[in-house]
Amino acid sequence: MNDQAKTITLGEANGELVENYKNPRVGMETPFVWINKKTGGIAKGEVFTIAARTGAGKSCFALQMLTHFSHRYRTLYVTLEMTEAHQAARYLASITDLNSRDLIRGSIQDAELFMKAVAAVGRSPIADNMRLSRFANTVERVMEITHNCGAEVVVIDTINLMKSSGETERIRLTNITRSLKQMALNMDVAVIMVAQLNREADGKMIPVLSDIKESGSIEEDSDTVLLFADVEDYGEIFKAEQKYGVSLCDAGEFSQMREGMRQCVFASIRKNRNGETGATVFWFMNDKHKFIELQEARERNFVPF
Fold it and tell me: Domain total for the chain?
């Protein structure tokens, strides 16, 4: 019999609730305190979506999350926009003072630092735990690779580039997201989907769920949706503070970071099955492909210039 056609009784479903009570949901902690507080971490069987316009750093954010997970879990990064070498370069840049463009071109000024970084990665659990692929452009291929490498966390970057049947773009994406949700549940893995926002979201300080390209099934099949927007005007931060009733950052901090050529990224959790929605800001160090939480910077008296 097809597993999807099986049913259980209400009594059996209640038994599952009792089991959940005895063994509460345990999410895998991300590198970001704010997300952990809001979501309790990302659990296996769940889908976490990161959506933003081009240039806001969504791929870097996903990679930063995955490299954090890779110290404890087996992971898979499916990249449909760049080579595996580009992803490796971004990671090395995030933990050193090396420039990712120089790493890709091979024009490395500090060879000693480069070799030390490569050796350090080789000694780390991440070297074996993290897998990279740019050939898994269908859900079936992603499932095959996930099974073969035993991945527990899978990033798809971006789902808009995956292939599937469907008469329209909306139907195609619906087939993809539904299949990825079933994969998360049936294979007991956490899935992180990276998605594009519509062009209509350009210039919006506070994107909404409907701004996700062909948003319907992405919203429905995600347990958590995190939206990004690059902020160039402090006035937009003030408006967001009024909307959400929270303090994000002050004008001095904003000016200081912009003068240091850092992006201020407004992030909002717009859907969360396991907790609260809300908003915060991150500083994006785009030359290092790394996000810093504002609260972390304050506590460490740290200005990441």
Answer: 1
- Examine residue 132 and state whether it is found in any structural domain, yes or no: yes
Q: Which helix (H) or strand (E) holds 151?
A: none
- Of 216, 210, 298, 218, the residue nearest 253 (C-alpha): 298
Beta pairing, strands 190-196 & 47-52: parallel
- pLDDT exceeds cutoff 80 at 21: no
For residue 295, is it within any domain? Answer: no
Residue 19 lies in a domain: no
Q: Can you give the pTM of this predicted structure?
A: 0.87
Nearest to 73 by CA among 44, 49, 101: 44
The CATH number linked to 62 is: 3.40.50.300
Strand, helix or coil for residue 247: coil
How far is Cα 253 from Cα 263, in angstroms, rounded to an integer?
A: 12
Residues 220-243 have pLDDT tens digits of 999 999 998 888 888 888 888 888
